[in-house]
């Protein structure tokens, strides 16, 4: 499913977090939102998910041609993985993953056995078989991250939004998960947008990288394009700085 | 290697903290605290039960074999049964509002929640008399429609709601603020509607705090004297709640019945204390 973002602005009080942002993500693409902290990347992601609403005006968001600008988060059902996982601590891993299926309306909700099967399949895919009855507090950071991902995927979202997916993990786990996510995306081809401040991560994972600075998109392009033809001083500087 | 790992000192050596007091001052502080609590809280409790049982079990039971007493107990239960659910809802709404939204005047609202704690209960009662009493602001209109609030159950409930409003809201607001709303947001992106989000995610997170607030609210609504005293009019068999009834009995020199009924309130307080301790421990563990 494609995402079209058209003229989106967002202000918090007197602070303008996003300034007239335009962005198009094609079906099956893996796109990184890259920028320093405070550049508006998380805000943009939250607006796409419907957790935050853009300033009223001419701005609009379309999911695969359908206007969702005024739809709430639960209508949009974009898979969202939070920076600190936001797992339900009072539920087991299996219950966490099954949550999205269990809150479906009765008509479309799969029966208990189907849910169990779906959960088992997801646990296998995130390599956490046998962890279903554990609680989130008994998991490591990397395991929590994978559970959060499985929980988001359980409802079969058309869009996957990841907020600093590897931000809270140590370097080694981060590398492994990065590879795993790339492979996972190759298999499923779910349109994915992820936020990061780490340009290595963005360049290694993404098909295209969006560089944000102070609520403005500075440049959009493939990792190679960005490296070879940075559009302005900020992009060149930001990429160089991190490369050292 | 083992010596490096074993950072715990041997049990016999008690590490002296920088803030540790000398034996004498420690002893002094502890005995002052215990002595004060014993004198101010434990002794009165003992006296209440002693007086209640001065004429033995029979005297105690006899105290409840009285129409006015039974009516007062029934009325108090009714007031609590209306007040506690309402204040649970109001408290939840207020805590939700304060912890989840940013708006102008939020600070004012937060301190307004605490108003019942620093306003004398008598004032809480007077306010409603001024509003709904015969000479009050809405008095004539109410009379026209034949609605009686003051010197009747609605007045008692209103002033009790005022006095006990604080508990649920004040306990939940900081807890909900500290927990943040990431889990609620996650629930929403997974397709949960508002009710499902509250029932499956928010409520399990706050249940012990909520229970704690409800217990305190209940204890206070059954024990409130001042505010209720102003609006009730002390009509026996009609508007006397348990605390008011105890005063009436006491003023009529019926000491054993007075203290027998009072011992019920004391018992309620003790049960509340036990439940409070239990929920606090669970809250700490959760």
Oligomer: heterodimer
- Describe the global form of chain B: globular
Question: Mind telling me the CATH superfamily name of the largest domain in chain B?
Answer: MetI-like
Rounded average pLDDT of chain B: 86
State the share of residues found in helices of chain A, binned by percent. Answer: 25-40%
CATH topology of the largest domain in chain B: MetI-like fold
Strand content of chain A: 15-25%
Shape of chain A: globular
How much of the residues of chain B is beta strand, in percent? under 5%
Q: What does this molecule look like?
A:
The complex is a heterodimer of chains A (244) and B (286). Chain A is α/β, with parallel strands linked by helices. Chain A has 9 helices and 10 strands. Chain A has helices at 41-49, 73-76, 93-102, 112-125, 141-153, 171-188, 199-205, 223-228, 233-243; strands at residues 3-12, 15-25, 30-34, 60-63, 66-67, 79-81, 159-163, 191-196, 208-213, 216-221. In chain A, the strands form 2 sheets. A 6-stranded mixed β-sheet of chain A has the order 6-7-8-3-9-10, with helices on both faces. Chain A has a 4-stranded antiparallel β-sheet with strand order 2-1-4-5, with helices on one face. In chain A, helix 3 (93-102) crosses helix 4 and helix 3 (93-102) packs parallel to helix 5 (141-153). The longest helix of chain A has 18 residues, at 171-188. The mean pLDDT of chain A is 88. Chain B has 2 domains: 21-52, no CATH class; 58-285, MetI-like fold. Chain B is 77% helix and 0% strand. Chain B is built from 15 helices and no strands. Chain B has helices at residues 2-5, 23-52, 56-64, 67-100, 106-113, 115-118, 121-132, 139-144, 153-164, 166-179, 182-189, 194-223, 226-232, 242-251, 255-285. In chain B, helix 2 (23-52) packs across helix 15, helix 7 crosses helix 9 and helix 9 packs across helix 12. The longest helix of chain B has 34 residues, at 67-100. Chain B is globular. Chain A binds chain B through residues 49-51, 72-74, 76-80, 82, 84, 86-90, 99-100, 103-104, 151-152, 154-155, and chain B through 182-183, 185-193, 196, 200-201, 204-205.
């Amino acid at each position: 499913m494609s995402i079209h973002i058209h003229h989106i602005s967002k202000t918090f009080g007197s602070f303008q977090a996003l300034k007239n942002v335009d962005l198009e993500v094609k079906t099956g693409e893996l796109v990184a939102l890259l920028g320093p902290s405070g550049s508006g990347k998380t805000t943009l992601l939250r607006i796409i998910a419907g957790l935050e609403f853009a300033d009223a005006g001419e701005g609009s968001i379309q999911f695969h041609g359908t206007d969702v600008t005024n739809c709430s988060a639960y209508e949009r059902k974009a898979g969202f993985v939070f920076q600190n996982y936001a797992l339900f601590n009072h539920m087991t891993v299996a219950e966490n993953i099954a949550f999205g299926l269990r809150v479906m309306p009765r008509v479309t909700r799969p029966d208990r056995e189907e849910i169990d099967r779906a959960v088992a399949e997801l646990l296998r895919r995130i390599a956490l078989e046998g962890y279903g009855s554990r609680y989130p507090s008994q998991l490591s950071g990397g395991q929590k991250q994978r559970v959060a991902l499985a929980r988001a995927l359980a409802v079969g979202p058309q869009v996957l939004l990841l907020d600093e997916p590897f931000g809270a993990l140590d370097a080694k786990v981060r590398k492994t998960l990065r590879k795993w996510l790339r492979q996972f995306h190759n298999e499923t081809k779910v349109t994915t947008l992820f936020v990061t401040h780490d340009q290595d991560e963005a360049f290694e994972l993404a098909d295209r990288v969006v560089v944000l600075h102070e609520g403005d998109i500075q440049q959009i392009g493939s990792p190679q394009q960005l490296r070879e033809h940075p559009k302005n001083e900020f992009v060149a500087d930001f990429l160089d700085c991190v490369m050292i | 290697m083992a010596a490096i790992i074993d950072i715990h000192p041997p049990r016999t050596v008690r590490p002296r903290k920088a803030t540790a007091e000398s034996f004498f001052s420690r002893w002094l502080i502890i005995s002052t605290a215990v002595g004060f609590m014993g004198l101010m809280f434990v002794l009165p409790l003992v006296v209440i039960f002693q007086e209640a049982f001065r004429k033995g079990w029979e005297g105690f039971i006899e105290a409840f074999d009285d129409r006015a007493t039974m009516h007062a107990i029934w009325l108090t239960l009714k007031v609590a049964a209306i007040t506690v659910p309402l204040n649970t809802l109001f408290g939840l709404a207020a805590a939700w509002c304060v912890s989840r939204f940013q708006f102008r005047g939020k600070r004012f609202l937060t301190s307004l929640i605490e108003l019942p704690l620093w306003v004398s209960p008598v004032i809480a009662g007077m306010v409603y008399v001024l509003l709904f009493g015969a000479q009050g602001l809405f008095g004539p209109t109410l009379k026209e429609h034949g609605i009686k609030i003051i010197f009747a159950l609605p007045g008692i409930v209103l002033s009790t709601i005022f006095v006990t409003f604080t508990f649920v809201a004040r306990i939940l607001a900081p807890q909900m603020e500290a927990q943040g709303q990431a889990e609620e947001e996650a629930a929403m992106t997974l397709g949960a509607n508002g009710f499902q989000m509250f029932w499956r995610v928010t409520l399990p997170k706050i249940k012990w705090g909520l229970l704690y607030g409800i217990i305190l609210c209940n204890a206070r609504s059954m024990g409130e004297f001042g505010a209720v005293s102003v609006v009730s009019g002390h009509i026996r068999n009609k508007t006397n709640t348990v605390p008011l009834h105890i005063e009436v009995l006491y003023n009529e020199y019926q000491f054993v019945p007075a203290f027998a009924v009072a011992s019920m309130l004391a018992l309620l307080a003790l049960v509340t204390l036990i439940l409070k301790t239990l929920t606090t421990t669970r809250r700490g563990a959760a």
